[in-house]
Amino acid sequence: MTDDKKPFDELLGWLDSDREKAGQRYELIRTGLIRMLISNGLSDAEHYADVAIDRVIKRLPEIRAAYVGDPTKYFHGVGRNIIREARRQKEIATDVLPPVATASGRSDTSDCLSKCLELLPPDKRAFILDYHLFKGHEKVKHHRQMAGELAISEGALRTRAHHLRVSLEKCVLECIGQEGKHKTAVQGHR
Amino acid sequence: MGVSIIINEDKNDLRRYLLGLLGEADEERLELRLLTDEGFVEEFDTVVDEITDQYVGNELGADERKRVEQYFLTSRERQQKVQFADELMQRAAAERSVQNPAPEPGFFERLRAFWTNQPVFFRTATTMATIVIAVGLVFVLYPRQNPSGTYTAVNLQMSAVDRSTGSEVKAVRLDSAAGIRIALALPEQWRDAKSYRVELQDEKERLRDLPIAERTPQSLVVTIPANEITQGGYIIRLYADGQRVRGSYHFNVE
Fold it and tell me: What is the pTM of this model?
């Protein structure tokens, strides 16, 4: 066992004596922290979530000796501290309106969306585009109609669309990341 | 991890959290649930997508749009989501609108289409005739039907259940009343609060505060003019001393 792995194993041990359950609990805490940090205006939330987890790992011997209570609450407290620190460092631009996408950013998203949609089976591609076709009241009527055609509830339709959208969005973000690296490499060669 | 039950109230709390409208205690409760409940995380993501789509589709009122810009969209991740949603909707409109014509128009939409296709002289003559008939009817009927701007009175009890369960949803008929006068029974433990806020949510999940017209030790009275309310289901939420009171009041305008 490497030195890096040992503290992490200890963290899992603190979360649950059953390693599998501890792993699930760890994942849930991390994804929850990421959502909490994003919702409080932090960019690069994955990095900050890892910072929170590292802090807990470093203090684990003292925590285990002195802290009584649910580990989740401890993580939540550390996450809140990180938000406060980031606010103090003015990491959070609370008065900034969403920037209009730059031409290059938009074109990357558009190109990557085309590529990712191509990777989907035709029925799923048609489904996700149909789901996002209308706005307002027409959207509500259209989703009802789609659910009826598929013989599923509107809730199930919503869940199905959400899962597909999550994977599509992930594909697009990974693609944009790769495009960005490619552009940097091309510029480096110039 | 367990199976989580997501009710409308959770969805509303998530929306309020994402727009920075929850009190500190509710915020902490919600964040702890985000760190422990897988189903709740999925619902959270769905509400994020809904707000993003409503923002991109320009479906939000001015207040909510401002809150989205000042709170919801401050992180880079959310701004990327907006860009993604915008592209996805544009692509859907470009590729699928031919295969999927807009849903069948309703009666009023068809009526409007018929009206706008008529010649101007026909529309002018019809408008004049309608005004004359309407003025005549007002003179004949108004004193008898609505003597002093009467309000339909409704007494509502706080309920812990979801609107869709139906049994505790009170039906309200507006008829010719000037509006609805709602007496909200205060839960016992909240009767000594110094301040209250009453929030109304319609079927499209639009929120607005209702001014409190009257306060007694056991209840609050709010009024809603008839021109500010349409048919459909409504939820009222109560805040006491800045804190959200668990449960809600439900009614249905028929």
Answer: 0.64
